[in-house]
């Protein structure tokens, strides 16, 4: 079988990006995981939000085998994927002023909880206002974003009226290391760059953060409320016990 050069290039690029995340973000990941553990110990609830494709990494840690049962998805109807018609509506909703406040006001999130906000660019109104309003309500905010979008010669301007980015309204920021445009490869005869990698690094940041949270809880003598796969024997029974113990902090069961 002939080697696929673009495939090798992409995988090498993804590995290099993950290496940067490991080498440059470990301290921030530790801080983020500790913040989540502190929230759990204090009786708070955990939420994750992402708009568009940034929602993929948020959804990946909600009701997920090997993940914390306490992580809830904070969903904005029409803005969590490409399931709306037309798909471009989701991008348009990210720019609507006031939508984040309405979502938070109708959600169970309250002071003492923690919210992870994922936005590659961090420039649209929805993630910026989500962070601003969450902190005003007394939530701790972890932002997962690419700092390249908020600084440097290629950085696009914020679309929020304040001129600020997601990174400006977070207690902790995790940098996904993705270049502006989220397309890693070029090829002769192809007019546009292609092959995005943001989901790779963003998901890795989320999983590393939750792994840190689980280990931190265990180190404090607390059994982390983890879910097991429903496809292994005893998985459903295990999960049922976790759901029963933490029912007041799990909202996708209601």
TrEMBL record:
PROSITE patterns: SIS (PS51464). This is SIS domain-containing protein. InterPro entries: RpiR-like_SIS (IPR035472), SIS_dom (IPR001347), SIS_dom_sf (IPR046348), SIS_GmhA/DiaA_subfam (IPR050099). It comes from Streptomyces kunmingensis. The lineage of its organism: Bacteria, Bacillati, Actinomycetota, Actinomycetes, Kitasatosporales. Residues 36-227 form the SIS domain.
């Amino acid at each position: 079988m002939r080697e696929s050069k673009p495939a090798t290039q992409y995988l090498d690029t993804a590995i290099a990006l993950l290496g940067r995340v490991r080498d440059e973000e470990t301290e921030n990941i530790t801080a983020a995981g500790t913040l989540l553990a502190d929230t759990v110990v204090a009786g708070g609830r955990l939420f994750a939000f992402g708009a568009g494709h940034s929602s993929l990494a948020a959804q990946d840690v909600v009701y997920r085998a090997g993940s914390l049962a306490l992580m809830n998805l904070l969903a904005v109807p029409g803005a969590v994927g490409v399931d709306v018609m037309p798909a471009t509506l989701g991008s348009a909703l990210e720019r609507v002023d006031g939508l984040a406040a309405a979502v938070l006001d109708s959600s169970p999130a309250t002071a003492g909880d923690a919210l992870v906000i994922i936005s590659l660019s961090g420039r649209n109104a929805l993630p910026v206002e989500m962070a601003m309003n969450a902190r005003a309500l007394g939530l701790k905010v972890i932002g997962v974003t690419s700092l390249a979008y908020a600084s440097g010669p290629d950085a696009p301007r914020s679309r929020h009226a304040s001129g600020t980015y997601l990174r400006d309204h977070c207690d902790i920021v995790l940098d996904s290391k993705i270049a502006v445009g989220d397309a890693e490869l070029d090829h002769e005869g192809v007019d546009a760059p292609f092959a995005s990698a943001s989901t790779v690094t963003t998901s890795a940041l989320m999983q590393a953060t939750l792994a840190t949270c689980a280990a931190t809880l265990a180190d404090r003598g607390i059994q982390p409320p983890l879910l097991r796969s429903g496809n292994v024997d005893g998985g459903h029974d295990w999960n049922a016990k976790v759901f029963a113990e933490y029912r007041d902090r799990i909202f996708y069961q209601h």
